[in-house]
Design goal:
The chain has three helices and no strands. By secondary structure, the protein is mainly α.
Length: about 60
């Protein structure tokens, strides 16, 4: 959590924006786990599970 998040500057962000930013962080984590740590199964599951949050929000 960075300083801006600690101060509550992101409280007015929409749920779609928050889930999008979260998905971007998960994709970066997936890339790191997949390439640097050679962890394929766990990284793929992380990617599928966490990016589905945005899909569920969009479905409504």
């Amino acid at each position: 959590m960075n300083e801006r998040e600690k101060k509550g500057e992101f409280k007015n962000e929409s749920l779609q924006d928050k889930s999008y930013k979260f998905a971007l962080r998960i994709v970066k984590t997936f890339q790191f786990m997949h390439t640097e740590k050679n962890e394929y199964v766990l990284s793929k599951q992380l990617l599928r599970a966490d990016t589905s949050i945005g899909a569920n929000i969009e479905e409504g």
